């Protein structure tokens, strides 16, 4: 158990406003407790009602997602020990540690009468020593078996060469159908045939775009989308990669590990090898387009038709509210035109995603 000085009250406070409750808020280290509570399962607070009236005392562990609280009615001169189970400790705002609460509040309310309480020992009680890992080194559940569950690195490497045939023979290098021919302009364009519009690829063949969004081994630009938060709950994992070894890039920051990226590094050894294999798999299984949110290691040297992402919220000049740009601003339109013009000579671009 970790606690503050048991022999001294932390604070005595009074509720004198007849229309509201008095409260005392504090962070963990302000009362001598650790910042991280992952090793504890109960918060214990000793309280004494030193008023001459009944007092309702509420203790609230505050987090951005939810709250944990306990409430008791205490008669005049009574002592009580408040115990709050921490099994569902609230998360703080943003990408934070799940076992680090924002703060603790203690409320005292005596209705229409002034109240006075004394707060004594505030302590944390350790969890029983029964921690067991539930996630293996590949990011899978330890318990249970199923088809294609990975147990060693050799299994990962063995499935690397699946889907290695040459793909479809009735398509051109862009993925267009060679069964028909239209005017070739060297770029993607639209043409109306009868009552419908169709894509025409740079070689003049009709192009039915079949694509996959999010072709990526991991997130980019500081994003941790798809990664697993591990800070302060390392005990849940059988084995985490070293943050200094050959798999260090699987750590997207000091809090998050991407097991998917880790397995890619184990399987292929490098991003370039992953890229080459992924492109071959896409072509072999009938895909001819890489969609939005795909990784730059793919889109910078695609070898397959792709769409380029334009994120306009990065230009603060056009932002009017909450990262939303003024799309009716003529300068905003000109800026989009400029970005697209810089890509005119890239024949593999089928179009653009404009992200507000």
Summarize the structure.
This protein has helices at residues 153-158, 259-268, 271-284, 296-299, 330-341, and strands spanning 2-3, 11-15, 22-26, 40-49, 55-62, 67-74, 79-85, 103-109, 115-126, 189-193, 196-200, 206-207, 211-212, 228-229, 256-257, 289-290, 305-311, 319-321, 324-325, 349-355. The chain has 356 residues and is α+β, with helices and mostly antiparallel strands.
Structure characterization notes:
There is one protein chain. This protein is α+β, with helices and mostly antiparallel strands and 356 residues long. The protein has a domain at 2-126: Jelly Rolls (Sandwich). The chain contains 5 helices and 20 strands. The protein has helices at 153-158, 259-268, 271-284, 296-299, 330-341; strands spanning 2-3, 11-15, 22-26, 40-49, 55-62, 67-74, 79-85, 103-109, 115-126, 189-193, 196-200, 206-207, 211-212, 228-229, 256-257, 289-290, 305-311, 319-321, 324-325, 349-355. The strands form 6 sheets. Strands 1, 2, 4, 7 and 9 form a 5-stranded antiparallel β-sheet that branches. The chain has a 4-stranded antiparallel β-sheet with strand order 3-8-5-6, with no helix packed on it. Strand 10 (189-193) and strand 11 form a beta hairpin. It is elongated. Mean pLDDT is 83; it is low at 6-11 and 90-96.
